[in-house]
Design goal:
The protein is mainly alpha-helical. It has helices spanning about 1-50, 55-60, 75-80, 85-115, 120-130, 135-150, 155-160, 165-180, 180-190, 195-205, 210-225, 225-230, 240-250, 255-290. It folds into two domains: about 1-50; about 75-290, MetI-like fold (Orthogonal Bundle). About 75% of the residues lie in helices and about 0% in strands. Helix 4 (about 85-115) packs across helix 11 (about 210-225), helix 9 crosses helix 10 (about 195-205) and helix 13 (about 240-250) runs antiparallel to helix 14.
Length: about 290
């Protein structure tokens, strides 16, 4: 009887110890995630707070997160002196053009790789994937020489043309198309739909989560592009926001609040885009899978 009682006490202590250990591990994970979240969001909050400070207030206390008193003059200087309005318009035009054209080209190529049987399909797809291993710095100079030979330097098309296709985009959409039942396409063909009609009216609407996910990646990549526009463009009126911010910083090296204000303005479209598309992003990545 005493042995059974001791065994019962030992079992309860063991289960209690396991429960506390599990809870402690979960608490540690949450603490780590909180620290990581703070470390990522604090620089943006610091920039946002300093964008509302005067120059004197910034240099007096650059680490204070509450500007005393707040001012909007820095935003006026960023637009009036830094010409953020011009750079924002250029970036929206570049990113919007690349977004639309790349989504069309990537989705059409991905649909062909997923559904069309042709000789060398798998080899060609592997060749497309192999380009993902090439860093951008390797293809930068050849791309510039081609653009220069075609007379595309310092032009709109010189900026956007290299971004019209993406191996990652083709891969992501191909995986999504492979998960769509073939019966839907067969039913469309019975109704008389051809290849392009099936792609446009059946496959694209079903691939909306993946298209939105890829669209966010494309827009973010083009919006944050710096090196290529800096190399291919020479007229400041054609610069995107990334080059414009760097130019504004060089000209106004001591007016950091205005530079922070310009950077805050530049970040707004990305934040708004993620807020609108966050549900599609999660669904698009989870549904793409790794089939095929």
């Amino acid at each position: 009887m005493q042995q059974q009682t001791a065994s019962s006490h030992t079992s309860r202590h063991s289960s209690a110890g396991g429960w506390f250990a599990k809870r402690g591990f979960v608490a540690l994970i949450y603490l780590l995630l909180i620290v990581l979240a703070i470390s990522m969001i604090f620089p943006y909050l610091w920039m946002l707070a300093n964008s509302f400070k005067s120059r004197q207030d910034f240099f007096a206390n650059p680490y204070a997160l509450i500007p005393m008193p707040p001012t909007l003059e820095t935003y006026g200087d960023a637009i009036r002196i830094g010409r953020m309005d011009v750079y924002m318009r250029n970036s929206l035009l570049y990113a919007g053009t690349v977004l639309v054209i790349q989504l069309f080209i990537n989705s059409l190529a991905a649909y062909a790789f997923a559904r069309v049987e042709f000789p060398g399909r798998e080899t060609l797809f592997l060749a497309v994937l192999a380009t993902l291993m090439l860093p951008g710095s390797v293809t930068l100079i050849p791309t510039f020489l081609i653009a220069h030979a075609l007379g595309l330097t310092n032009t709109f098309w010189g900026v956007v043309l290299p971004g019209f296709a993406s191996a990652f985009g083709i891969f992501l959409l191909r995986q999504f198309f492979l998960n769509i039942p073939r019966e839907l396409e067969d039913a469309a063909r019975i109704d008389g739909a051809g290849f392009f009609t099936t792609y446009w009216r059946i496959m694209l609407p079903l691939a909306r989560p993946a298209l939105v996910t890829l669209g966010v990646f494309i827009f973010l990549n083009e919006w944050s592009s710096f090196v290529w526009p800096l190399i291919v463009l020479s007229d400041w009126k054609k610069y995107p926001v990334t080059v414009g911010i760097a130019l504004f910083r060089d000209v106004n090296a001591i007016d950091w609040p205005s530079v922070f204000a310009g950077s805050t303005i530049v970040s707004f479209p990305i934040i708004i885009l993620f807020i609108i598309a966050q549900e599609y992003i999660i669904g698009g990545i989870s549904l793409s899978g790794l089939k095929g």
